[in-house]
């Protein structure tokens, strides 16, 4: 069996009302997504998504004519492309979906088959006022979620603490709470400086008081020494890594004791092929491996298969902040949105590959390239 073609299409979903992400100073009036399809001479097609595939154009010949199951070979080529150009890891996801279809097995089983379900945490995305945020947390408990991540990024972190207190007062210990401090990276137009170590320690003391499970991205992504010192200074767990670009950076975060929780995204770095190494390394060092999943529904599904197959995560991120970030918006590429069961778990299908289908009519209607 040989790869005969790779097709890449771009899609844009208008957002009305807009989505105001906590990490972005500009409201989002549209949502862009890229779909990658890898087809073989036997008519099977694997699908992937999650990043824009910038820089891949002109490199198709490095894969066409090759055996699709040479996943390690393809990973090394993609790693080279990533160094010289852009992050093209959605192709790795498509190759794993294809491998599952060739084998007649779901990807989570190909990866080791630790289980067919993963507990989730509801990952909010907006800076709502305290009352609205508390109401959202109450809604999440009713949907079966056992944990929720709350975003910080108000002008004064003390106002963030006030919103967090409102949630804790409303739901008590019915929800495990995590906080994303949004200090690790910025959008291109956002020049605000990140917190310094002593800022982060001061915030961490407040989070300890409120029994927060982890504080995410509390310092600049490159400040591993600061994260290590912060981890040694406080009891709240330190989480990081969602936009990290290189696998060796995850190795260093883990082996240097900089984090308690590592959060790579298979759609953004390493693909499934690379991140299964990181999942094993994290477990060997007693570090929680739980992927970031804020790309789209197909990226979420790929990370869920990785976690279910080889990881040992207490839960995985489930982006959900209705109505501005609904399942229908997040998963507009898919024939049916991905949802949790009554216990807040993602239950993975036993169908080959990722076990999901694209919404071809919606893709045609939203195609921009």
From TrEMBL:
Pfam families hit by this protein: MR_MLE_C (PF13378), MR_MLE_N (PF02746)
Superkingdom classification of source: Bacteria
InterPro entries reported for this sequence: Enolase-like_C_sf (IPR036849), Enolase-like_N (IPR029017), Enolase_C-like (IPR029065), Mandelate_racemase_C (IPR013342), Mandelate_racemase_N_dom (IPR013341), RHMD-like (IPR046945)
Mandelate racemase/muconate lactonizing enzyme C-terminal domain location: 130-237
Cofactor(s) of this protein: Mg(2+)
Keyword Transcription attached: no
UniProt KW keywords: Magnesium, Metal-binding
MF GO annotations: hydro-lyase activity; magnesium ion binding
Example GO biological process: carbohydrate catabolic process
Record flagged with keyword Cell membrane: no
Record protein name field: Mandelate racemase/muconate lactonizing enzyme family protein
Organism: Microbaculum marinum
